[in-house]
Automatic annotation (TrEMBL), chains A, B:
Domain Catechol dioxygenase N-terminal per the UniProt entry, residue ranges: 25-98
PANTHER family, sorted: DIOXYGENASE, PUTATIVE (AFU_ORTHOLOGUE AFUA_2G02910)-RELATED, INTRADIOL RING-CLEAVAGE DIOXYGENASES DOMAIN-CONTAINING PROTEIN-RELATED
The name this protein goes by in its record: Hydroxyquinol 1,2-dioxygenase
CDD domains xrefs: 1_2-HQD
UniProt keyword terms in alphabetical order: Dioxygenase, Iron, Metal-binding, Oxidoreductase
Cofactors that this protein relies on: Fe(3+)
Length: 322, 322
């Protein structure tokens, strides 16, 4: 252990890292080493003042205290700083043919009703009906059966169920499973673009940065099946005014869709009125193996660029020190 | 503004920074640029997983929710990560002859009683009496008169007044002023080494890192007088078992003192029993001008090492871009 005395701007970092180095969890030790390095470099490079440091302390405190059972302000903060998008990209790398992922956002819940194909997942009478027809395949083009799919979207006012103080239960969200042909379909409403919650500290930060809080309209999807890499993604409506200025950086061109109108044949087959808005999409999941190979390849490259030999512990990289 | 689409591990950082660049406050813009860079580099270098990111989100949330009127868990977190010590060193640089600063800690309050020289600032009957005799001078050796001095210390159980749920009011703390000879003196008790609050998330983190939560015994001092750089410091007892392993990195050799025993002459002069423990110290404050010159010099050096020309806005550096 280091002798902790006479620490100053030049030696505090190495000594903090040494002090943390008794940690037996090598991954945590590596995370703490990088965290302390970056935190200290940030302060040194900006010459952070005591007053600014205290503003930061107070800001983070309010962010924590704005969180409750249905609001996660730290996720919002991560979202508007581009961190959430980055983490998804690191943790779920995709080969070119696979469906891209995007930010989870703070509105997923674990209490959605399980529904059957064709069910209506929104009870909002003011929403514009939207028929959604999808397929789910693996990267070799084979249908994936029995995949659990979480779907959630806004109501016609651009809000999720959990944003209504008087809500009775889950709405605008459901869980369903793909059939033997990889098909799943349901009746929804057209999602609406909306501001992320901006009455808290994250909203104040956006304002100070002269940024708007809006997200283009989208519908969220999350796919989970053993053997496949979890896919968290969303489909965005082409032409939305916020299509290229999403407050949380989530839009990808491959996830932008055109709504069309159902013709008579489709309308009859799926029991909707002719002319109802239609969204279709063919999702492609990668296997756990494809994802972990790609993740390992990229991790190795990133850590070697730092001049570190790498080994992997439960799929996560740590420096390989002798 | 950038077109925010198809963001990935390689381009998210520059685009997040561009998105924040409409901010008119140049200092805030610089802070955000460095914050986003370091946050993203941290994630990229560690290949942070979604699960680890979520643990971080949950950890910070609990830290925020552990804060209340008398507990500041984010300051504790900053303390145990070495950040608080670093910020003090950056913001209050000291020439060699001046009294060094150290961490403020989370136990300073603004409700201490104003006392006169010779008053007892602790009512704890179990504390070992300690006579404290100090002088306060500028860097040319001239006495500083009328400086406001906040002093605070633990009781005989190693706790500050605010850590007692049933406390009646301030105790073990006071505010006093130096006299025309720069002298101030008071009766206290011997401070006791203690663990920082470790029943919350910061305590759990220390445990995971196999670190103890103890601070060596010390007495806090804060000096404020217009024209002089604020000094936040503390005097540590030599020989304390935690002298070289302070959980918050605060000990400096120049701040470690030996307690002696009062002889008859001193005891009579200051109205204490002969043999009472005695602590003496000669504090030296630097002027605002000395501090800001040194701060600017060091800031310039630090930012130029980053390859940036610097200008100063209200004493704080920002890159000087044309």
């Amino acid at each position: 252990m280091p002798l902790l005395k006479d620490l100053n701007t030049e030696n505090i970092t190495e000594n903090t890292i040494l002090t943390n180095s008794s940690c037996e969890d090598l991954r945590m030790k590596y995370l703490m080493e990088r965290l302390v390095s970056h935190l200290h470099d940030f302060a040194r490079e900006t010459r952070l003042s005591t007053r600014e440091w205290m503003s930061g302390i107070q800001f983070l405190t309010v962010v924590g205290q704005t969180c409750d059972e249905v609001r996660q302000e730290f996720i919002l903060l991560s979202d508007i700083l581009g961190l959430s998008l980055l983490i998804d990209a690191i943790d779920h790398p995709k080969p070119p043919h696979a469906t891209e992922g995007t930010v989870l956002g703070p509105f997923h819940t674990h209490e959605a009703e399980e529904m059957s194909h064709g069910d209506k997942m929104s009870s909002d009478p003011d929403g514009e009906p939207l028929l959604v027809l999808c397929t789910l395949k693996d990267s070799a083009g084979r249908p994936i059966e029995g995949c659990k799919i979480d779907i959630w979207e806004t109501d016609s006012t651009g809000r999720y169920d959990v944003q209504h103080a008087d809500r009775k239960g889950p709405d605008g969200r459901c869980v369903m499973y793909s059939d033997k042909d990889g098909i799943f379909w349901f009746k929804a409403i057209k999602p609406i673009s909306y501001p992320i919650p901006h009455d808290g500290p994250v909203g104040k930060l956006l304002k100070a940065l002269r940024r708007h809080p809006y997200r283009p309209s989208h519908m969220h999807f999350m796919f989970e099946k053993p053997g496949y890499d979890n896919l968290i993604t969303a489909l965005y409506a082409r032409g939305d005014p916020y299509e290229t200025s999403d407050a949380v950086f989530g839009v990808k061109d491959s996830l932008v869709v055109d709504y069309t109108q159902t013709d008579r044949e489709i309308a009859e087959k799926y029991d909707v009125e002719e002319g109802t808005l239609l969204m279709t999409y063919d999702f492609v999941l990668v296997s756990d193996e494809e994802a972990s190979d790609l993740r390992e390849q990229k991790s190795r490259k990133a850590l070697e660029a730092l001049g570190r030999k790498v080994k992997f512990l439960e799929g996560l990289p740590v420096p390989d020190v002798d």
